[in-house]
Amino acid sequence: MATHSITVTVNGSQEHLNVPSNMTLLQMLREKLALTGTKNGCEAGECGACTVLVDGDPVNSCMMLAVEADGCEVTTVEGLAHYHEGEVRLSPLQQAFVEHNAVQCGFCTPGMLISAHALLQRNAHPTEEEIREALVGNLCRCTGYLRIVRAVQEAAADT
Amino acid sequence: MTEELHTTDPVGKSVPRMDAIEKVSGAAIFADDMQFGPGLYHGRLVRSPHAHALVKSVDPGPALEMPGVRAVVTGRDICARIGLYLIDRPIFASDRVRYVGDPVAGVIATSEETAAEAAQLVHIEYEELPAVFDPVEAARQDAPLLHPDLAEYQVANFIFPEPGTNVSEHFKLRKGDIETAWPQCAAIVEGTFRLPQIQHVTIEPHVAVALWEQSGEVTLWTSSQSPFAQRDLIAQSLSISHGNLRVVSPYVGGGFGGKAGVSMEVYAVAMARAVKGHAIKLRMTREEEFVGTTVRQSLVAHTKIGCDAEGNLLAMETEYYFGGGAYNDYGVNIARAAGYSCTGPYDIPNVKGDSYCVYTNQPIGSAMRGFGMPEIHWGIEQIMDQLADKIAMDPTEFRRRNCVRTGDTILTGMNMPAIDLVACIDKVTQAIHWDERRGQARPRPSAPHKKRGQGIAIMWKAPAMPPNPGSSAVVRFNEDATVNVEIGAQELGQGAFTVAAQVAAQALGVPYEWVRVSAPVDTRYSPYEWQTVASRITWSMGNAVKAAAEDARGQILGIVAAHWGEDPDELDIKDGRVISYQSEREQPLKNMVVYGLPNEDFEGWKGGPIVGRGKFMPTYVTNLDPKTGQGTRAVVHYTVGAQAVDLEVDTETGEVEILKIASAYDVGKAINPDLIMTQIEGGAVHGMSSAFEALRFDDKGRPINANLVDYRIATSVDVPQEIHGDFVETPLEDGPWGARGVGEHVMVQTAPAIANAIHDALGIRFNDLPLSAEKIFMALE
After folding, report:
1. Chain A hits for B492, Cβ within 8 Å
2. Which CATH number belongs to the domain containing residue B562 in this structure?
3. Most buried residue among A65, A140, B392, B507 by CB atoms closer than 10 A?
4. Pairwise CA distance, residues B139 & B145, whole Å
């Protein structure tokens, strides 16, 4: 299996990596960079647990090859909060998830946050229907989604 | 948000979850996130393509030749079986395979990719046998026999298999005199109800990493609801001393019963033995999740009920045939639980119930949220509606009249503990404005081609456990008086850790924010917990934590009382300080909980490190007569509840839109009210989704829809506009502050509530799951 030298900016840090041709972006993040916040739920682009931002767009990282991310900016859930001098500042969206109890087992949460974050970047004041549509590719079995939708609404209202 | 929270007396308050920040920041570790370094091997199971076949030969040779392959393990290498209540599953099928997907070998390699490729190369010869998929057919004397050696299997003393058949459990319930009851009935209704197998679809797949050291110490890291039970079963099957087998489980990304017993974990341990000194990871693909772990059993239920002219239920006769799948994990106990709760939450004086768990050539049927209750309530709640209809009685009135009440003698002869199901019915009927329907005020559909309907369903469920499931806990302090609570209960998302902290804080007298829960659960360090199942943790673990905290509190008060020369009964702990009601002195907990207190002039010391310990195990559950199912105390308690559904059906497409689900459950005491609401909401959606789900197989038993495209679960666009939740608080006698569980109950009766609402809208009754737009549309034609 051939390997390729790529440069990817992940959560603001430039990474120089050697990746096999068939390594997915998901595998690269989890196995090469130990960024395990992004999850493997189905490896078929169906559950959304692996959602990350690539140049600002939400992508199922299990369906993208690592080599395709060469030269791109990738944001994972670990990149949403701000860490400054020992203090953690959760993003308004993360904070809203906490306050609304929109988290139960937490496995879908990183993907949900990324999809919701991407939504708010392109549409600062989405309707409830638009929020539901934006999250339709992120499966959750625990929460019933209502809290997640409300958390996104609150985060939108705060901006 | 930077305000410092300081919550005293947290029981009854909606304190924030203690794991939320970890989970939103991506820092929470799940089993697949654990790092094992570059020496980690990877496993892949070789699975049977046939539903039923003899295994003639297994040749791992071609696989072993592949570079990177370290070992191949087969049934011949293990020669052991595993099981929970009935030990029937060989660890790697060696003489016979019993379902499409039955593991026959395990390949271990240096990469996941190599293991997957090598798995294709293991050469196996099969001789196909006739297969059986329907539980009623499988129960017949002439059905193909899956387990000819059933008589030889070790079995728990409350399970009754019938060797020579495919029946792995038969529970009999006989109460009153059914034959004399029928002639007294003014109305009788009979029906057959069917459900397919469905799957948990936890977003986190199963994953296990096992390491078998040369020294004989074995470690299993896995996503598990029941680390201690997994240790117990695997230790026994693979002849490892309990003390040498360590099970570690971090956060579980959804369980719902699918990670409660042993499915794939034992294979990881068995495979690790072939590569001692190397950790090996086995991870299920999503396809394997669907058909290669466990599923909810299928059911065929024949039920007949009758009532008098006033609408009082007089008789019920029911037969449950559960499609147990190829092997039992929890299956036999599900059939048993369905048997001793077969009436549903109703007071019926004459009952004849037979509940069978039947082997079928299908994936392993096992525990899924509700443990037999959703399966049986599907038919019960519809047939009750049918009977009410037959005597022209309002279905909510029919249920108020006949539902179980405190003190009733229920079907097993037990006295119903204190609950208030009528209050639950009242709350949900109010929430959907049921009483306003009578006469002209029926709610109108949103368009002329839509029909609107409402339905109600009630439920009950007891924790289905052996009679002696124990919980234990340890409470210890750090120097700054923060507290570590050690438990064996697992955080699946239901909030177990948060509740543990609330209970400890309340019982100790410290703020909630001072308490940490020691995690991950690790059988080497964590105190014993039977299993995180059965909606039992708030009750059972809660009692153990409360006892441990009270033990610690007693030690502290004793030390301070001696230090002050006062009576410990005059002392209390409030907000992290010992106070005296008598002298009004105060002693902060800080430091003294580790270092103790000096005597006057430092002439000696009192106290030392405070470690509180506690346990809880119910002691009052009795056996049931195998011929009648009667006994003094079949179960610890029941949780009851009601749900009402308001929906519309689009008659042009058959699509169902759920407008509102209203739920009300008697939780005894809401330790964390908002966490209960999150269970109500999640449960309503899970219940709704379950009405439209089904695993599909072809006529050779091969799965057709084992993926997330063809097996669709509810998404954000499917959720009702409104989910309304209420709880009733009738204290549980031995619950912590009266609390009883609710995690499963919230989805038990959603499917029949929907079916009843569809019948209300269309006049059409659906006896078989799954529902679908297509089915409804075809029925309208």
Report:
1. 105
2. 3.30.365.10
3. A140
4. 10
d(CA B507, CA A96): 31
Average pLDDT value for residue range B325-349: 97
How many structural domains are present in chain A? 2
Beta-sheet strands, E only, within B655-769: 656-666, 722-728
Mark yes or no for CB contact B678/A143 under 8 Å: yes
DSSP three-state, residue B427: helix
- Alpha carbon distances (Å) from B265 to B211, B258, B560: 12, 12, 49
| Portion 266-295 of B in contact with A at CB < 8 A | 285-286
- Percentage of residues of chain B with pLDDT beyond 90: 98
Domain that includes residue A40, residue range: 3-79
Nearest CB to B253; choose among A37, A38, A106: A106
Considering only CB atoms, which chain B residues are within 8 Å of A78? Answer: 25-27
pTM of the model: 0.97
Question: What's the rounded mean pLDDT across residues B310-335?
Answer: 97
Q: Do B774 and B635 share a structural domain?
A: yes
Report CB contact under 8 Å: B719, A146: yes
Q: Is B190 domain-assigned?
A: no
Distance from CA of A71 to the nearest CA of B (A): 24
- The single-letter code of the amino acid at B289 is E
Mean pLDDT, residues A9-33 taken together: 98
In a domain, B42, yes or no: yes
- Inspect the interface and report whether the beta carbons of B683 and A46 lie closer than 8 Å: no
Paired sense of beta strands B295-296 and B365-366, if any = parallel
Cβ atoms B458, B424 nearer than 8 A: yes
Q: Which domain holds residue B566?
A: 471-616
pLDDT of B1 reads: 37
Phi then psi for residue B320, to 5 deg, are -115, 125
ipTM (interface predicted TM): 0.98
B744 labelled catalytic: yes
- Distance CA(B569)–CA(B591), nearest Å, equals 23
Of A88, A103, A108, the CB nearest to B17: A103
pLDDT for the residue B4: 75
Q: How many domains does chain B have?
A: 3
**B-chain residues within 8 Å CB-CB of A104?**
493-495, 678, 682
pLDDT tens across B591-631, in order? 999 999 999 999 999 999 999 999 999 999 999 999 999 99
Residues B76 and B217 in one domain: yes
Task: Flag if B204 and A39 touch (Cβ within 8 Å).
Answer: yes
Grouping H, G, I as helix, E, B as strand and the rest as coil, residue B737 is: helix
Q: Which of residues 95-134 of A touch B (CB under 8 A)?
A: 95, 97-99, 101, 103-110, 113, 131-133
C-alpha of A142 from chain center: 19
Residues B101, B105, B111: CA angle, nearest 5 degrees: 100
Shortest distance between the Cα of A143 and any Cα of chain B, in A, equals: 4
